[in-house]
């Protein structure tokens, strides 16, 4: 049975998130925690498949940051942050802390939460299935079996938001072939236009170049889309 923790100090919000999860995934076990102390104690003794977390708990403005650090220390459990803190500021902070995704309160609907939640559960399932698979060659892109959302390039993990992960996966799955803009539109939830796709690809390239300055494996094909080119065939 899948086991999820909802860490949220506001009881109505906690109950709403719980009801959404139960509706999306009947039979799932859900623990609700309302303080940092409760959450950290639970994390130390329980192994959750996914954790939904608010950043601000009670008077502790950044309690969620400490909780994420505790999560990474114990089990590296996938975390979906749901917070009123502005996404423009905190999304990058949560990304640096290895949170999987970030939703800002009052800016998303039930369907957005459920889509994100179920997508993360699917990634959890895929991660478990890949644990026993042999590692890829050192110069090949692969998914870390312990963190399915984090691609590995030349032995180093690359941190990317979920939409960029989907685009990267689509490009790598069709490596050597052009992936059209229309095909890439199918893997994003919003912003289905060419400018937005180009921004996501730019984010992917920048993330790779943080650890590999010569990364050139994503090729722009004018008017058509993008193509993943293996390093031996025109990349670094």
UniProtKB/TrEMBL annotation:
GO CC term, one of those recorded: protein-DNA complex
Residues bearing the modification 4-aspartylphosphate: 54
Biological process terms in GO annotation: regulation of DNA-templated transcription
Domain of life: Bacteria
Keywords tagged on the record: DNA-binding, Phosphoprotein, Transcription, Transcription regulation, Two-component regulatory system
Record GO terms (molecular function): phosphorelay response regulator activity; transcription cis-regulatory region binding
KW Transcription regulation (keyword) present: yes
Sequence ranges assigned to domain Response regulatory in this UniProt record: 3-120
Keyword Protein biosynthesis in annotation: no
Cross-referenced InterPro entries: CheY-like_superfamily, OmpR/PhoB-type_DNA-bd, Sig_transdc_resp-reg_C-effctor, Sig_transdc_resp-reg_receiver, WalR-like, WH-like_DNA-bd_sf
UniProt xrefs under PANTHER family: REGULATOR OF RPOS (PTHR48111), TWO-COMPONENT RESPONSE REGULATOR ORR33 (PTHR48111:SF1)
Name of this chain's protein: Response regulator receiver domain
């Amino acid at each position: 049975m899948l086991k999820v923790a909802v860490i949220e100090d506001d009881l109505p919000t906690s109950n709403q998130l719980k009801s959404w999860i139960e509706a999306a995934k009947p039979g799932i076990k859900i623990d609700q925690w309302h303080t940092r102390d409760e959450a950290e104690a639970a994390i130390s003794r329980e192994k959750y498949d996914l954790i939904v977390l608010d950043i601000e708990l009670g008077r502790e403005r950044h309690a969620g940051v400490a909780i994420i650090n505790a999560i990474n220390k114990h089990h590296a459990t996938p975390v979906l942050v749901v917070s009123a803190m502005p996404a423009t500021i905190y999304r990058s902070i949560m990304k640096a802390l290895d949170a999987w995704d970030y939703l800002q309160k009052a800016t998303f609907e039930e369907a957005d939460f459920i889509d994100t939640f179920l997508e993360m559960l699917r990634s959890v399932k895929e991660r478990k299935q890949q644990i026993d698979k042999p590692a890829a060659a050192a110069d090949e892109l692969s998914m870390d079996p312990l963190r399915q959302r984090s691609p590995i390039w030349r032995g180093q993990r690359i941190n990317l938001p979920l939409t960029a992960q989907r685009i990267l996966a689509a490009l790598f799955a069709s490596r050597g072939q052009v992936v059209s803009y229309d095909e890439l539109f199918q893997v994003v939830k919003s912003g289905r236009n060419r400018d937005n796709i180009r921004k996501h690809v730019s984010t992917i390239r920048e993330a790779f170049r943080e650890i590999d300055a010569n990364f050139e494996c994503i090729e722009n094909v004018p008017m058509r889309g993008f193509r993943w080119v293996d390093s031996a065939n025109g990349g670094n």
